[in-house]
Amino acid sequence: MTVASINPAINEITQPQLWQISVERYHDMIDAGLLTEDDRLELLEGFLVEKITVHPPYSFTTDQIRDELMAIVGPDYFVKSQQPITTEESEPEPDVFVVKGNKRDFVRRHPSPENVALVVEVADSTLAQDQTWKKRIYGRAGIAVYWIVNLTERQIEVFTQPSGPTAQPTYHHMVTYREMDDVPVVLGGEQIGALSVRNLLP
Fold it and tell me: Which of 3.90.1570.10, 3.30.70.100, 3.40.50.300, 3.40.50.410 would CATH assign to domain 52-200?
């Protein structure tokens, strides 16, 4: 017989409490200096989540995708890396994303979903989170195109047709591109080019 079975209330005492905060409260904590860049946190559906340790293959892929996208996006877009997007309940920091507009449009605020044309997450140990939690966040926000660069299976999973803020947010369409493929880059509903999957992978 375990201690917990003698006194079930002990289970309640030892279980960690999870606290949700609003995006506004999160910004207040940053402005007050309670959270800094050194804390390596992002806000996901109201929860403060620790970001993973970065490994060399992950760094290479993130840099490669950023550089390749920067080379093909036109003057109406620019590329950001590992910076926040502000949604109603989250402030994720995607590995790479493409923003419509001018950099000076965002001097005093982070991009919001209506400004974001493409989001990319590079996934190794975070694959399950990116395929579920992050997909739900981006699908709810209505971000048109979401890539998961799956380092484990050496493929890129492209999600389109976001559901928006439904009871079970998701993307309704997914295509997998493997090493021998070129993945189309679609911004604002228009394909502006394609990138070699093999060239993006470590």
Answer: 3.90.1570.10
